[in-house]
Amino acid sequence: MTESRADRFVRELTDLKIPDPAAGRARLWLRTGIALMAAGLVLALSAYFLSHGTKNPLTQRDAITLALGGVAASVVGSAIFLRYSLTEFLRFWLARQSHDLALLGDRLAEKEIHDDDIVSATR
Q: Taking the model in full, what pTM does it have?
């Protein structure tokens, strides 16, 4: 039975049995990034409405400070989300590159053996 290249790749990845000790932590940071993005957006919007709902300059300045904090929270949340969402993709990409390079090395080694057999047979 012939096994497709993708099936063989998946099988070899499961054969490695390398546990990821930080899998739960990565999900936690991913969710934290999403929560920070959402909380920052809500904070900035509520500060906007707070600053436009009053004529008191002290309250408006407090609202500006809250809005800047909300924007900062959104930026930090976006960076955390981006970092941890790309981690899984890059880990898979690295495993695939390693697998492809191993196959290339095996093919080159087989070709060298075959070429050596041809050279020794012609002598």
A: 0.62
Q: At what angle do helices 5-16 and 57-122 cross, to 10 degrees?
A: 110
Residue 16 lies in a domain: no
In the three-class reduction of DSSP (H, G, I as helix; E, B as strand; rest coil), residue 123 is classed as: coil
**pLDDT single digits (tens) 24-48:** 788 899 999 999 999 999 999 999 9
How many structural domains compose the chain?
Answer: 1
With respect to residue 22, please indicate whether it lies within any of the assigned structural domains: no
What is the DSSP track for 24-53?
HHHHHHHHHHHHHHHHHHHHHHHHHHHHHT
- Structural domain that includes position 102: 29-122
Which of 61, 69, 81, 79 shows the shortest CA–CA distance to 44? 69
Name the DSSP class of 22: T
